[in-house]
Amino acid sequence: MAARFTRIAVLADNHSGHCVGLTPPDWWFAGTANTRQVKIAAIQQEMWKWFTREIDKLKPFTHCFHLGDAIDGKGERSGGTEQTSADRGEQAQMAAAVINHVGAPVVVMVHGTPYHVGADEDWEAEILPHLKAAKVHLEGHAFPLINGVQFDLKHFISNSDAPHTRFTALAKTRLWNVMWHHVQERQPDAQIVLRAHIHEYRYCGADGWEVVSCPALQGYGSKYGARRCQGTVDIGFLVYEIEGNGTWRRITRLARLPHQVVQPLQL
User: Fold this and answer.
1) 255 within 8 A of 55, measured Cβ to Cβ
2) Torsion region of 254: left, alpha or beta (phi above 0 gives left; psi -120 to 50 gives alpha)
3) What is the CA radius of gyration of the chain?
4) What is the pLDDT along the chain (267 residues), one digit of tens a residue?
5) Spans of all domains in the chain
């Protein structure tokens, strides 16, 4: 008997706990006259409403993959000034609310960046008790096999300052998997390789395989992004549909949010 049809939500980099991370309603800024917080509250509401609306359109999901940086951490580099809450236990509850909204009975998570999720602790583990899924897996590097389609999930991927060389990291990631499988014989031969970390949606591939850097679920507005980064940022998530015979397709949902459009400084 053929395996059943599966629909997988792929989430990454929601940075819950950051003011422009994906924030469930219980943690929105509200009842404030502070100009900055009013602006952030609008972004929080806009992002959550977009996320839940787009997820709800595609339900039901059989699986949810989360590719790391589910929480933002203590925010040491900004003195905690960008955190809705610096309590990582509370951030874990926010992140769980994000994953629970997907409603998938199987959740696979991979660890994120130590700066965000703990250099000496694994704070993603604190998310697990709050999840409603029947099966939950948390690994550093995961290789789920679904309907004969082999995935390779990991958070980190390198990047480039030049737009035209950003695909090099994707191709390199594919080559490492090929070498691990065919030369070392220590990894499965992955058809779909998923990475996160750089908050940018890019993909490369050929017949039967692809490597994708996933969009993020954190909005624009971090101090680090505004002051240090110049590359583009993509907000959104991916969905993979896999038929019982192993054929698959990728669905992309990217947000175009009015409150995330930079306005000219009128002088």
Assistant:
1) no
2) beta
3) 18
4) 345 889 999 999 999 999 999 999 999 987 677 888 888 899 999 999 999 999 999 999 999 999 999 999 999 888 888 999 899 999 999 999 999 999 999 999 999 999 999 988 899 999 999 999 999 999 999 999 999 999 999 999 998 888 888 899 999 999 999 999 999 999 999 999 999 999 999 999 999 999 999 999 999 877 766 676 677 889 999 999 999 999 999 999 999 988 878 888 899
5) 6-149+212-260
Which residues does 117 contact at the CB level (< 8 Å), separation at least 6?
A: 68, 69, 70, 71, 73, 111, 123, 124
CA angle 209, 62, 171 (to 5 degrees): 20
Asked if the bond preceding 188 is cis, omega within 30° of 0, the reply is no
- In order of 163, 171, 199, the CA distances from 167 in angstroms are 8, 6, 14
Asked if residue 111 lies in contact with residue 163, where contact means CB atoms within 8 angstroms, the answer is: no
Q: Token pair for residue 204?
A: 């490369």
Residue 136 neighbours by CB under 8 Å, 6+ apart: 106, 107, 108, 109, 128
Report the predicted TM-score, pTM, of the whole model to 2 decimal places: 0.94
How far apart are the C-alpha atoms of 36 and 53, rounded to whole Å?
26
Q: Mention the CATH class of domain 6-149+212-260.
A: alpha beta
CA distances from 56 to 35, 43, 50, 61, 193 (A): 32, 20, 10, 10, 25
Structural tokens at position 93? 């509850």
